[in-house]
């Protein structure tokens, strides 16, 4: 049995929960009333003989029991006496001893008939064990329970998924279910995939997190994708219930994410999920970024990906949705009473709710006590309304006034990296930044760990992947928007920052700043050329070969074309071709291909590069370039090399077919298994040819031996889709207070205080 302290519920949620639970215990339906409106009555039931039962709930989390008992004696008893009900039931979230109940019965006599009509924390937990349906309906209770967490943490999922899940659970107490929640679940149930879109700060990630909680409670295992859809393919388990999560799956690097084969891989994975009843896939993206992605890559449009979209907009939030969001943030904040009073004075909370710039992210900032340094209670209201009037101020003052030069530099580096960065890489970039020419007068302490400790929790988030690998990311995406725009016209700062980072992610950021019209192309040319000159002067010290190659490719795309008369570029080619391929090497392969075609390099170094590349599990795009390089080698003279390349193509084709069998291409207009096998061979031969394999027959034979075409044939023509082995219950969704019996303003009712 779970033991709840009910602290994750606000007072109104606690009233709804108690009304629900006591209705189940008594076998009747208690009607809710506005607090204070009917002498403090929270629920009322009229018997057929006209006698009245009154239910009162007290959820004073931070109040000592003695003070609460005094309030009941001095205030509540007078209200009960005036009502004179036939039966009075009192529910407290405090733990109660037998003696505590005796004292309360004495103070509420004669209206409390038995000790069973005074319920404390232990009694509520006992009742929940008897009425599990009530527990399921109030999911904020059980989603953070030890049973759920133990269940999840025992699963063989990536550390990143554990970290993300714990963050989602922590945020759940602030969550307010809206119509969006139910509609998004309906879309997931009907299509298995949902792409949550909307403007920045509207709550896309929060909604996605709560959808994940819903499915984790249904025994789905969470797998979080960070950068590449291949991560999801790598942990895909045919037999398991899995929910995949790709937050901000395009991000600012949508050009990179949707270029070439990658866009098709995402769409193919979506199609794979749609066919599997035991899988769910949740993605988020800003609406503007997704629209730009569709324009860039028509594979999204051609595959009708829009049917999976679910847009969250401010207009989709009703007034009560916004009211509950604000109320929940106030309740769970650490704001002192004087600050809260400022929001209640003259019903100012309504000004926040009705503000055109209202969004959950801004409300979170407004109610965050850590962001109120130097803001006295009397200034709090003007501070809050000014943040809504000028959202950029959310970060302007903390970044400009509360950080020194070194602190700002560290935030700048993380921002321009474009995604999470390892602590090791950030430390090296920070050291390079501090050592850059002309920055000797920077203010602040130059100690890396000291700055990191200072910024963690306010500007940056530090988290651990695996046992020891720490990573750093921005505390909030809106901080990235602010920093990008703040430095857009500061060319010297951009030069120093990007030359200090030396990461592939930072080059993607620079490229996408142009695409998103944050900086002009001329600025990117200047910055890219500055980076190139810096690393050439240091003879590419500590540089990854793919970073150098990607930088060369970017310079060419920006108009600084490759030239055989450019000695620095020739030095870069020599560095790239002599380095071992590690991980990604698409840009390196393109540079090597250019060098080979322009006779800047001999066949020997290229042969060594190819041997290393073929053993590095090349992707589709990498194989296309390697195939072009291979075409410059004679098949007879370099037989061992061509065999090595054909083996790499074979491995890729086998893995791609195992991930997503091409059913439509193989089985359409197919009348027999032998015809299916012929179709499969023709398709594999075509793909192997596109990738530049030399011995097509040998490649196809190897692929065919590894793939059971007959099994796929039987499944396609005779096997129906299995039904999910879990039951989807709409009645287990989160609930919020229903209509009140009184005709009162629902917003004011929500914000009413005892």
What are its keywords?
754 residues; alpha/beta; Trna Endonuclease, Chain: A, domain 1; Rossmann fold; five-stranded mixed sheet; five-stranded parallel sheet; globular; Restrct_endonuc_IV_Mrr; endonuclease activity; DNA binding
What does this protein look like?
Residues 8-63 form the Restriction endonuclease type IV Mrr domain. One of its GO terms (molecular function) is endonuclease activity. InterPro entries: nSTAND3, P-loop_NTPase, Restrct_endonuc_IV_Mrr. By secondary structure, this protein is α/β, with parallel strands linked by helices. Among the domains are: 11-142, Trna Endonuclease, Chain: A, domain 1 (3-Layer(aba) Sandwich), CATH 3.40.1350; 146-316, 3-Layer(aba) Sandwich (Rossmann fold), CATH 3.40.50; 319-391, no CATH class; 645-718, no CATH class. It has a five-stranded mixed β-sheet with strand order 1-2-3-4-5. The longest helix is centred in the C-terminal third of the chain and has 21 residues, at 639-659. The radius of gyration is 31 Å and the shape is globular.
Low-confidence region ranges: 149-157, 252-261, 721-725, 727-742
Q: Can you say what the CATH homologous superfamily of one domain is?
A: P-loop containing nucleotide triphosphate hydrolases
Q: Roughly how many Å apart are the termini?
A: 32 Å
**CATH architectural name of one domain:** 3-Layer(aba) Sandwich
Helix fraction by DSSP (H/I, runs of at least 4):
55-70%
* Name of the top-level CATH class of one domain: Alpha Beta
> What's the gyration radius in Å?
31 Å
**Could you say what the CATH topology of one domain is called?**
Rossmann fold
Strand order across the largest sheet: 1-2-3-4-5
The biggest beta sheet reads: 5 strands, mixed
- Rough shape? globular
Mean pLDDT: 84
- Helix and strand content put the structural class at alpha/beta
Number of strands: 13
Helical stretch tally: 39
Strand content: 5-15%
Pfam families: Mrr_cat (PF04471), nSTAND3 (PF20720)
InterPro entries: nSTAND3, P-loop_NTPase, Restrct_endonuc_IV_Mrr
GO molecular function: DNA binding; endonuclease activity
